[in-house]
Amino acid sequence: MPQTAPSTAFDTATAVTRSAGGGLVAELDPGWDVGGGVLNGGYLLAVAARAAVLESPHVHPVALSASYLRAPSAGPASLTVVPGPAGRTLAHASVVLSDAAGPALTVQATTATLGDDAPSYAAPMPAATPVEQCVSIAGNAHLAPSAVSVPGLSRRVETRLDPLTSGWAVGRPGEEPLMRAWLRFADDREPDPLALVTFADALPPTSWALGRFGWAPTVQLQVLVRALPAAGWCLVEARAGEIAGGWLDEDYRIWDATGRLVAQSRQLARAPRS
Fold it and tell me: Which residues of 90-127 are buried (b: 16+ CB within 10 A; e: fewer)?
C-alpha cells in the first residue's frame, strides 16, 4: 500500500521505503533517543508498524507484540516482513528490524482498518490536571543537572507532566509507581494510530515516581490501538503493578482529546539499578 510523502519530523523519522533490490529500508533517527544514544522503544515499534502496514491490505496497526533483542544503532536499518493470514477485516505479519549488527527487534503485527464507531462500554478517563497547568519536560530542560543529557524524545514529543503524579521531578517522590501526562508532537503533527504506538512508550519509567532513577530497557512491549484519535492532546497514564527481582512491568492507557480510550500497552522492562 503506498505511503504519503513524509512531511513532519515523525513521518520522516519513521519512513519505510523500498530499496533498489525490493527490500524495505529505514533510516533510524538519532534524535528519538531516551539518553545515551539509545533509541526509544515506541519509536522503533512505529517504524516496524509502518513496514507491516506497507505490506498489508489494511491501513492501521491494531495489535503489536514486540521483543527487543538489543538496542539498535541510529542510521540505516532493514525490515523483513513475512505476511501471514489475511482477510477482509484483518491481516497478520511478522516483522524483523535489523541494523548492521543483525536483528534488533521482532514484531508480531496485526493490521486492520479502524473506524469511528462509538464504544458500547469504556472506562472513563481519569481526572487529570488541565494541560495548561502541567509541567513541560522540554520547557524545563535547563533545570537538568549538567551531567544529565536531555533525551531527544522530549524535544520531539511535547510532554506535560501532571503535577499530581510528578513529585519525583521536584525531589518529592511518591509512594505509587504511577505517571500521567499530556502528549502531542512538538511540531503540532496531529495524532494517528502510528503516533499512538510511539506514545505508548513515551513516558519516563514509572519507577522514577518512587525516586528510583536510571534506564529501564524494554524487553517486551505489546500495543493495542483501539480507535482513530481526535486532533489535539492525548492523555497518557502509566502504572506499574510490581517492581521486583530486577523487573518492572508497566500498563499504559491513552485517551484522546475527546476522552475516548484510543490505545493501551503493556511492557516488561528491566528495573533501574539505582
Answer: bbbbebbbbbeeeebbbbbbbbbebeeeeeeeeeebee
**Residue pair 185/149 in contact by the 8 Å Cβ criterion:** no
CA distance 40 to 83: 26
Q: How far apart are CA 69 and CA 78, in angstroms?
A: 15
CB 260 within 8 A of CB 225: no
Per DSSP, what are the bridge partners of residue 251? 239, 266
Q: What is the pTM of this model?
A: 0.94
Per-residue pLDDT of the chain (274 residues; tens, 9 = 90+): 445 555 799 999 999 999 988 899 999 999 999 988 999 999 999 999 999 999 999 999 999 999 999 999 999 999 999 999 999 999 999 999 999 999 999 999 999 999 878 899 988 899 999 999 999 988 876 655 444 567 899 999 999 999 999 999 888 999 999 999 999 999 999 999 999 999 999 999 999 999 998 889 999 999 999 999 999 999 999 999 999 999 999 999 999 999 999 999 999 999 998 6
Going from the N-terminus, what domains does the chain have, and what CATH number goes with each? 9-112 (2.40.160.210), 132-270 (2.40.160.210)
